[in-house]
Amino acid sequence: MNFRQSTFTALGALALGGIGSGAAIAQPAVDYSEPDNWLCRPDNPRACAIDMDSTIVHADGRLAREAFGRQSEAVVDCFYVYPTVSQDSTANSDMEAGPEEMSVIRSQFARMGAECRQFAPLYRQVTLTALRAGMSGDSSMSPDRALGYGDVRDAWHHYLEEYNDGRGVVLVGHSQGSGVLARLIAEEIEGTAVQDRILSAMLIGTTVRVPEGEVVGGTFREMPLCEAGDQLGCIITYASFRSTTPPPDGALFGRGSGDSMAACTNPARLAYGRDRLHAYMSNQAAEGFASTGPSSAWTSEEDNINTPFVSLPGLLSAECVNEDGFHYLSVTVNADPADPRTDEISGDVMNADGSINEGWGLHLIDMNIAMGDLQRIIRRQTSAWLSR
What we know:
This protein is α/β, with parallel strands linked by helices and 388 residues long. It has helices at residues 8-15, 99-108, 128-135, 145-164, 176-189, 267-272, 371-387; strands at 38-40, 54-57, 63-66, 76-81, 117-121, 168-174, 198-204, 209-211, 234-238, 240-242, 260-262, 276-282, 309-323, 326-333. A hairpin with a 2-residue loop joins strand 13 and strand 14 (326-333).
C-alpha cells in the first residue's frame, strides 16, 4: 500500500473527522440506480468477483488449500465504505473506478461475500492528492468533505429503497470510510426504524469515543459497543498497534479526549472468546498495493504457495490495552520456536526516509489481521438475526 505511506497527518485527521474543506461548489447528485456507480452490487459484482482462495498455514507448518465460496443465498447484507485510496489529481475523486478502488475491495471486503450480499458504492472521497497538498501547505486544493458523505448517504437510501426489503445489514468501513459511516449512523440511522435492521457497524481504523467505563454515549447516542459476538445493533471498532510499539504521544488513533476514551473491541474475543486472531494476509501484490507477507517465506517448511491469500490462524493475538491516554488493539506475533511460521508481518506505515511511522500503528492491515474473526462475527450475528 505504498500510495498511502506519505499521507500520515492529513489522512489521520480525515479519519477522525478533522480536515476542513473550502467553499463547496454544488455538484450534481450521483445516480445510484446505475450499476457502474457501485464497486460491488449483487447484479453487478465487479470488484467483488475475484479469486479469494487461500492457503492455510497451520502452526505445525502444514499447508492446506482453502477454496473461497460466495454465499449465493445470503440472508443479510454488507454495506462497505472504503478508505482513502484515490490518486485522482483533483481534490475529490471522480466516479471512475481506478485500480486503487478495485484493489482495496480485494484487501478489505471481497472475502465478506462468504457471509452476506455485498454493496460497495463509489463515492467522491477526499483524495490522496488533496491530502498531500494540504500537508505541504498548498491551499489551492480544497477538498469538499461533504461531497463524499452526501454520495454515501444517497447510495444508502437507494440501497434501502431498492434492495433492503427489511433485511439485516452490517455496515463496514475503514479510515475515511469509517468516518463517513459514523456520520451516517448519527444522522440517518440512530433513532429511526432502520436502526433495528443493523446487525453491527464495523468502524475500523478510526476513533469512536465513549465515556470512560461506558459502552454507549460519546460518538453515538444509542448504539453501544459490541460486548458479545452474537449481539445485534452494536459497534465494533479498534485501531491496531504492535505490542512492541505502543502508540507514541503524537499517535492519531486510539486517543482519548476530555472525559471520553477511544473505544476498543477485540474482534477475536467477539468471534471466538479468545485473544488469538484469524488473519488473512495478501500473498500477491495487487496494483497499487504491496503484499502484506513477510520478506522471506510464510513458513520454513514452505512449499510453493500460489493462492492470492494466506490464512494464518493463531499466528497473531490481540488485546485491548488502555494506558497513557490511549485505548487500542495491541497485536502480538506469537513467536514460538516450535512454530515454523514466520515471525514477521508487514503492515507498518513508513516515512519517506524508510523509517517506521509509529504513530500509525498497523493501520494498513487493520482489517487483514482480523478478517477471519470479522467473518465469524457476521456469521454469529446472522444466526442471532434469524432467531430473534
